[in-house]
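Schema walk-through. Below, the input block comes first and the output block second. Nothing else is stored per chain. Lengths vary across the set, and this one has 297 residues.
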Amino acid sequence: MQYKVGYFFKTAVSLLINLIIYCLGVLLFAGCVSLVEKTGRVLDGTGSAEKQIAFYRIEKKEGSPADINIREVRNKAGLRSVIISLDQFPAMVLRSSVPNESGEIFLASMDYLGGNIHGWNEYRLDLYGTGNLRLNENNAVLSIPQKIEAIQIRSGRIRSYDTRITGTEALARLNSRRERILALVEWMRNREDAPKGLNNRVNFIKFWKPLLFPEMVSGKNQPEGWKRENDQWIKAEDIRWNHSYTERVFPEILREIRNSGTMLRDWEEVLSWIYIEYEWERILELLSKEIIIPKKR
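--- output ---
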């Protein structure tokens, strides 16, 4: 009897662990700030390196453009900065100086931290741009009407399974990945059938995944006529890719990336990064209008 109790207890624990792992996987791909990402912040010290001075938040309602948060923070050296985030893009924050006497702010960086079931990618991208911000007793008034220019990835770290990659190797990998993502996004935006106003990541995945990876979706979701009788196939990353489909649909710069499985790996590991780059112009448009954001007590 004791043996059976022990056996059933172990089985229950095993099932519970598997359920937790499955739920974590679902959360990672649901677009929330994942447990893996939060763990990354804890391990890197970024979760406690700054003290919040003030917090402003507007929730999307009638007439408001987005769920926007502004935090005024101070680091251990006493330097203050402003962090701007949008709930729709939880993997990124924009960092700026505090407003000067005329209310002008200087954008400094975009910080990205995106998780997947095997680890995370993290980087700081230098930005150049200015905006206007007034931090009042009851609210903040924000507008960034000028174009924000992305300069380069200044620093970054990667966690893949049990391997932690930092320094110049991490920078090289992140910059290579950024070049691939920018090339992919440019092609996506320039397609005649590219939809306008994809307002969440679910719709983004629903439209683009079947076009990018018809081999990876169910038959009813595959593009019509994507597979033809004399198509040639190539195997990479244990997947048979339709080489002829790649030739018909993708520009030369993206063909080897797709046929090698690298494009799929980017999609699976940093989907939130691809989504941010695709929606970058809309993000800037949201921030360009003057927004009044209530202060939270």
